[in-house]
């Protein structure tokens, strides 16, 4: 049994469902009218756009590619993790932020509404916003709950820019 299929309909799930009902509505209509492939493509683009705009607001007072931007992003993410109850910060160092999601309430909601095949479109937004909002930062993930893993791991590594001579 995957991590998604054994979710609990607890307060975290209920809160996620409330936040994502509009998403459920859009994805249901997209999938039924356009089919899985096109719905996935549109969802991935929409989630990427959302995450880029969201994080641009968070770090808007900082310069692209700067250490300060990375630090502000890390601080925001650490606060989010502390409030979540299911995200653990594994490492927060000057150049690295590593977190683990013990569950994915978004995927749980998508499963509840028979949209689990579109869940990964949201996962892809991490790569998109990291590339666009955090230039000079490499993002990687080796495990994904939506692919049947027990957790998701996220790692952002800040790489100092090399000066041209």
CATH topology: Muramoyl-pentapeptide Carboxypeptidase, domain 2
What is the correct CATH architecture? Answer: 2-Layer Sandwich
Biggest sheet features? 4 strands, antiparallel
Shape assignment: globular
How big is the Rg?
17 Å
Which structural category fits the helices and strands?
alpha+beta
Summed up, the helix count is 5
What is the number of beta strands? 4
Give the H and E element order. Answer: HHEEHHHEE
Percent of residues in beta strands?
A: 5-15%
Give the CATH class: Alpha Beta
Spatial order of the strands in the main sheet? 1-2-4-3
Question: Could you tell me the mean pLDDT?
Answer: 93
- Measured distance between first and last alpha carbons: 55 Å
Poorly predicted regions are none
Helix content range of the residues, please? 40-55%
The domain count comes to: 1
């Amino acid at each position: 049994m995957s991590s998604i299929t054994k979710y609990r309909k607890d307060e975290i799930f209920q809160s996620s469902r409330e936040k994502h009902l509009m998403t459920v509505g859009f994805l249901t209509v997209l999938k039924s009218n356009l089919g899985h492939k096109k719905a996935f493509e549109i969802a991935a683009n929409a989630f990427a756009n959302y995450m880029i705009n969201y994080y641009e607001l968070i770090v808007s007072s900082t310069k692209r590619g700067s250490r300060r931007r990375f630090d502000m992003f890390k601080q925001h993410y650490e606060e989010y993790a502390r409030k979540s109850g299911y995200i653990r910060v594994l490492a927060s160092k000057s150049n690295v932020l590593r977190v683990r999601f013990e569950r994915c309430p978004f995927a749980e909601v998508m499963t509840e509404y028979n949209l689990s095949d579109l869940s990964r479109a949201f996962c892809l937004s991490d790569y998109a916003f990291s590339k666009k909002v955090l230039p000079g930062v490499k993002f990687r993930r080796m495990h994904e709950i939506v692919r049947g893993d027990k957790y998701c791991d996220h790692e952002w590594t800040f790489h100092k820019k090399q000066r041209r001579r």
